[in-house]
Amino acid sequence: MRKSYRIKKEAEFQDVFDHGQSVANRNFVIYHLRRDQPHFRVGISVGKKVGHTAVMRNQIKRYIRQSLLELKPRIDPQTDFLIIARHSANQLDMVGTKKNLIHVMTLAGLLADDVDII
Fold this sequence. Notes:
Its EC number is 3.1.26.5. The protein is an alpha+beta fold.
């Protein structure tokens, strides 16, 4: 994803944490905050408790980014959101990651209703 679609600064992360709403399932937590902007922005956090090695953590982040790329046309453009991986996310493959993200993003109201599961 391009840099304009990313939340990188600590202050922006903290703003979404402090003022946003959260929704979770077993594998991911999403904090989301409505903004007046041309497209969505996302921050991804995968802690050391999720994947003990950098290789595992980076793989989870790649799966999340690829899922978001495939879901991009259906994501609400006026939203900043953070995706935080839970410990059980390291058991998922690409298809499982996408299914879980669709589930939690639908709960958060970030996706259009006509999303295909795979």
